[in-house]
Amino acid sequence: MTERNVFDPGLEYEMVKSIQGTDALQARKEFHEKRIEQKMGMATLGALMLELVMTDPEIPLNTLFDLMDEHTNELGLSGKQKSIFRKLIKEFGGRREKQRALKKENLTPETVFMKRFHFAPKGSVKVEYGPITTNFILSSSSDYERIEGQRKTTRGVTLKSGGFFSSGLSRCYFFSRFR
User: Fold this and answer.
1) Same domain, 42 and 126
2) Does residue 71 sit in the same domain as residue 130?
3) CA 99, CA 152: separation in Å to the nearest integer?
4) 98 and 117 share one domain
5) Total count of domains within the chain
6) In a 3-state reduction of DSSP, which class is residue 138?
7) Which residue range forms the structural domain that includes residue 46?
8) Cα 165 to Cα 35: distance, rounded to the nearest angstrom
9) Does residue 110 sit in helix, strand or coil?
10) Which residues contact 10 (CB under 8 A, 6 or more apart)?
11) Running DSSP on this structure, what letter comes out for residue 122?
């Protein structure tokens, strides 16, 4: 990977705004091209990290930090942009620790559900643990609607066969029938 000059969009934009005359259009065009290239690189890096985590949930955080350093230098990211990636990696580590602790407790699916949502489920619950999220598969639409805060019912939408809700460390799926 080659290192390139830092491209800080905030600073670059301020410089581009100050350019007057015939050079202004070309400067804006170059700014937008660099910004798009950088955003695409950041999205690719994020997708690569996600793929690594999904492939190996126990991947050491240092491996992710090394990958980040390698790619952020190539992308010319500013210190602020690099700190966002560092923060996300640290957050992943924290979430992974919470998942490990929850799995070690060896609780029933209903107990995990009550611990997360603070009410007992009316229907059946299945729990699937991912690297950073806990997936709840519910058989009761009323459990699903209660979690979602009545958003669907206040809009006049009735759940008949399925739904999806995601918030923080949990995801909920509702299916009228499951094995």
Assistant:
1) no
2) no
3) 29
4) no
5) 2
6) strand
7) 9-103
8) 33
9) helix
10) 78, 80
11) S
pLDDT in tens, 14-72: 999 899 888 888 999 999 999 999 999 999 998 999 889 888 988 999 999 999 998 88
Tokens of 32: 């937008």
* Three-state DSSP state, 120: coil
Residue 83, both tokens: 């700190």
Q: Do residues 4 and 19 lie in contact, with contact meaning Cβ atoms separated by under 8 Å? A: no
Around Cβ 143, how many Cβ atoms within 10 Å? 22
The string of pLDDT tens digits covering residues 135-144 is: 888 888 788 7
The pTM of the full predicted model, rounded to 2 decimals, is 0.67
Q: Is residue 4 part of a domain?
A: no
- Contact (Cβ atoms closer than 8 angstroms) between residue 122 and residue 110: no
Confidence of residue 1 (pLDDT cuts 50, 70, 90): very low
